[in-house]
């Protein structure tokens, strides 16, 4: 009985955001890159949870925070099939759409180690282009084009 009460306290979200269907392994990176812990709200992270169609997935719940449209779109680069649910009073009131953004600023470092963005005090800036087989990201500073996965995987 006590176990059940505890589980409910951890899992139930009164209001805030649930980010679900994150590919396993990306949850902690999303938490860090989007600085979700900086809101000083309660954050619950589930890693390697079983998922029917994905095998395993990560999940993030954050209390009293709603992602901006810009954040939701940047999230699409990590979790193309991710879902973002806005919770009020323990119920889902809205699902935020994730659409690959046209540009991404300040989240990823340029994979080109000779890029001027590493030495100048500038925010990284990529323009994003979705092609049939890949998503390409072009750095504004060195003008090199990278596959999205290469940019997203740079730590
Ligand atoms: Zn660059």
Automatic annotation (TrEMBL):
Q: Per the record, a Pfam family? A: PyrI
Q: Name one GO cellular component term.
A: aspartate carbamoyltransferase complex
User: Which organism's genome codes for this protein?
Assistant: Vogesella indigofera (Pseudomonas indigofera)
Q: Kindly state the subunit structure of this protein.
A: Contains catalytic and regulatory chains.
Task: Name its co-factor(s).
Answer: Zn(2+)
Keywords assigned by UniProt?
Metal-binding, Pyrimidine biosynthesis, Transferase, Zinc
Report which superkingdom the organism of origin falls in: Bacteria
- Gene name for this UniProt entry: pyrI
Q: Which residues bind Zn(2+)?
A: 110, 115, 139, 142
Described by its record, this protein's role is as follows:
Involved in allosteric regulation of aspartate carbamoyltransferase.
**Family according to the record:** Belongs to the PyrI family.
Residues forming coiled coils: none
Q: Name one GO biological process term.
A: pyrimidine nucleotide biosynthetic process
Q: How is the cofactor bound?
A: Binds 1 zinc ion per subunit.
Entry's Gene Ontology molecular function annotations: metal ion binding; transferase activity
Span of domain Aspartate carbamoyltransferase regulatory subunit C-terminal: 104-151
Q: Where is the Aspartate carbamoyltransferase regulatory subunit N-terminal domain?
A: 9-98
* Protein name, entry field: Aspartate carbamoyltransferase regulatory chain
């Amino acid at each position: 009985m006590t176990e059940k009460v505890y589980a409910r306290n951890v899992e139930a979200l009164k209001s805030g955001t649930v980010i679900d269907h994150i590919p396993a392994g990306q949850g902690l990176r999303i938490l860090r890159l989007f600085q979700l812990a900086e809101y000083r709200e309660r954050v619950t992270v589930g890693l390697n949870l079983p998922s029917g169609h994905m095998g395993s997935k990560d999940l993030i719940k954050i209390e009293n925070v709603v992602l901006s449209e810009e954040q939701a779109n940047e999230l699409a680069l990590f979790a193309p099939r991710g879902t973002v649910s806005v919770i009020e009073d323990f119920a889902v009131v809205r699902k935020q759409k994730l659409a690959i953004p046209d540009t991404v600023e300040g989240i990823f470092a340029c994979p080109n180690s000779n890029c001027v963005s590493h030495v100048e005090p500038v925010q990284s800036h990529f323009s994003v282009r979705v092609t049939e087989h890949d998503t390409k990201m072009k750095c504004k500073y060195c003008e090199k084009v990278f596959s999205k996965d290469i940019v997203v995987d740079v730590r």
